[in-house]
Amino acid sequence: MNEDNHPTRGMIHMISGGATDGDSGRARKAHGRRLENFEISRGTDLPPDPIISFGPEDLRGIVAPHNDALVVTTTIANYDVARIFIDNGSSVNILFKSTLDQMKVEGFEFDPVSTPLYGFTGHAIPPLGQINLPLSLGRDSRRVTKMITFIVVVKDFRAVASTYHQKLKFPVGKEVGVLC
Q1: What are the strands, taking DSSP E only, across 29-166?
Q2: How far apart are CA 139 and CA 75, in angstroms?
Q3: Out of 16, 85, 137, 176, which residue is the most buried by the measure of CB atoms under 10 Å away?
Q4: Is residue 46 in a domain?
């Protein structure tokens, strides 16, 4: 695998979002304690972050008003991966098994995950496991790479979204479920 995670192996299309920091109640509590400690010590231990702001220039090419999802392309494990869905409210980074299979990653192993994910229908989806992979944002001198934990699942919703109708429809047996 290319050490600096520059795309060299191909393009994969998927959707992903959120962050994960453990599978058990103990791991979630430890994460909460780390966040509290981070907030307390943040000002003295680390250099200040640059100010991130959005202005009118960021709206170039955007037709407003809109309710479009934020979907980007980035690099994961040396692949340009397109159609990554950024969901600020998600609690995990989801990687579909079919995407992982396309990557043909070697030297990475699944860590077990016992907590199921719950889908749009309320049914539990048992993850296949979790895996750490390098993810890069940006290009050239404004590029940053970090190891990210992904929960690997089998894609099985076959859902169809309409932003115009503000609904998501999906098959439930011989019926069609609706999420609005």
Answers
A1: 70-76, 79-86, 94-96, 117-118, 124-125, 129-137, 144-153, 160-162
A2: 10
A3: 16
A4: no
Residue at token pair 């640059």: 50
Tell whether 73 is covered by a domain: yes
What 3-state DSSP class applies to 31? helix
CB 7 within 8 A of CB 84: no
Query: Residue 120 domain-assigned?
Result: yes
The radius of gyration of the chain's CA atoms, rounded to the nearest angstrom, is 19
CATH assignment of the domain containing 36? 2.40.70
Residue 67 C-alpha from the chain's centroid:
19
DSSP reduced 3-state for 44 = helix
Domain total in the chain: 1
Q: CB within 8 A of 115, min separation 6: which ones?
A: 23, 24, 127
Q: 136 lies in which domain range? A: 11-41+64-154
Residue 110 lies in a domain: yes
Q: What is the pLDDT along the chain (180 residues), one digit of tens a residue?
A: 555 777 667 777 665 444 445 566 676 677 666 655 555 554 566 677 778 888 888 888 888 887 787 888 889 999 999 888 887 667 788 898 888 989 988 877 789 988 888 766 677 788 899 999 999 988 888 889 999 999 998 766 666 666 556 676 777 778 787 765
CA 176 from chain centre, in angstroms, equals: 27
